[in-house]
Write a structure and sequence with these properties.
Helix content: 25-40%
Distance between the termini: 39 Å
Shape: globular
Structural class: alpha+beta
Strand content: 25-35%
Order of helices and strands: HHEEEHEEEHHHEEEEHHEEEEEEHHHE
Oligomer: single chain
Number of strands: 17
Number of helices: 11
Strand order of the largest sheet: 3-2-1-6-5-4
């Protein structure tokens, strides 16, 4: 595809993707790229819930072979978020692996096989734009079809996990001022852990919630707590009052017999000032340069423990280059088979080793270290990690 032809064809290709039935996006992409780029093969690979493999999208029961999400050409494109060109010998050609990310949320990779011949940079850029456009349509299509949600799973989710994943905003978000990456385990059996965020022109609100219990009971509790926090947030009330209203909602339902630990953070995107409410057990760490410190916040009562609890905001400051890491109790409170606590020391070592990695990989690495410490992927408690890189607003 030469640059002139690409510039003329890809905008109309994006329009055709928007017009395609949700279940037919991959077929439409194959047809368009065959016609306009000479593509011989097009495969959409979506990251599974555990971020271990990239799954080819196909209509069940027909499934392709997954590829690793952390090595190999496609995995390299996914992890590094940059195109990878694989030279093929038999038959000769090129296989382009293009990362698909929607507003900072990594979804997967689009693999496009092109015939033999030079692949110029403009072609790679144009195909990268096409992959992004396809990603936006896949994200929208989830409202109308289960195809892409089914493609993401290597096995059946528990009902509690199904509820939790539907409640999440995604696993990442990015804009000029910040980049967020988050991870949950056990991905296919998560119950009570949750993260949430929302941003407007000048503020970002981020929460990490840990509903007590396991399975359906934990999922229902967390769904109520997160729903109440969102309802209060969307009413435009201050952060501490958001916690108060959510506290009342949880107590009204459970009468103090069940509660949700929550960390609420509100960032001023212009100044870097942060308002915080620590309503329970999630812990917060900050990396500034090579120094890692725990941000000590006043421990207040979890949501729903007592009736009409009053919450107080605290403040601290972030500077460009800072990294914040929030971890749930299932991370900092997990013990190995020998009874050793996965505590602050182990967490600091992982954070130090991943300082230069993107937020997504840091969050995943923390959970991987936790699993290694515990000795099994079948964690006894849910584990949530949210990593935020603060860039600040230019000008």
């Amino acid at each position: 595809m030469d640059a002139v032809k690409a510039s003329e064809s890809l905008p109309s290709a994006e329009a055709l993707l928007r017009a395609a039935p949700p279940h037919a996006l991959v077929a439409t992409a194959r047809r368009l790229l065959a016609e306009r780029a000479g593509a011989e093969e097009v495969t959409l690979l979506l990251a599974d819930y555990g971020l271990t493999v990239l799954q080819p999208v196909s209509h069940l029961p027909h499934t392709g072979t997954p590829v690793p999400a952390h090595n190999g050409p496609a995995g390299s494109a996914f992890i590094n978020q940059s195109p990878v060109i694989e030279v093929l010998r038999e038959p000769p050609g090129h296989l382009l692996h293009l990362p698909i990310t929607v507003r900072g949320d990594r979804m997967g990779v689009l693999s496009v096989r092109l015939p033999a011949g030079p692949v110029d940079p403009d072609t790679v850029l144009q195909l990268g734009d096409f992959a992004t456009a396809l990603g936006h349509e896949v994200a929208t299509a989830d409202r109308d079809t289960d195809l892409y949600l089914q493609a993401r799973r290597t096995r059946r989710l528990t009902l509690a996990a199904e509820m939790q994943w539907q409640l999440l905003p995604g696993c990442g978000s990015a804009r000029e001022e910040y980049a967020i990456g988050a991870h949950l385990e056990p991905a296919y059996a998560i119950g009570g852990d949750n993260f949430d965020w929302s941003a407007d022109a000048d503020h970002l609100i981020l929460t990490v919630t840990d509903g007590m219990g396991q399975g359906i009971e934990a999922s229902l509790l967390t769904s109520l707590a997160v729903g109440a926090l969102r309802n209060a947030r969307r009413a435009g009330i201050p952060l501490a009052d958001q916690a108060c209203l959510a506290d009342q909602a949880v107590f009204a339902q459970y009468g103090g017999k069940a509660y949700a630990s929550t960390l609420l953070l509100e960032f001023d995107l212009t100044s870097g000032a942060v308002r915080a409410v620590d309503a329970g057990s999630p812990q917060l760490f900050r990396q500034r340069g090579d120094h890692t410190e725990r941000i000590e916040l006043e421990a207040q009562l979890p949501l729903g423990m007592f009736e009409e609890t009053l919450y107080v905001e605290q403040t601290f400051q972030v500077e460009p280059g800072d990294r914040l890491i929030a971890v749930s109790t299932g991370v900092h409170g997990t013990r190995s088979a020998a009874g050793d606590l996965f505590g602050e020391r182990a967490l600091r070592q992982i954070l130090s080793a991943t300082r230069s990695a993107p937020p997504h990989e840091t969050a995943r690495s923390v959970v991987a270290g936790l699993i290694e410490h515990y000795g099994s992927k079948d964690l006894m408690s849910d584990a949530a990690v949210v990593c935020l890189d603060w860039k600040g607003r230019r000008g």
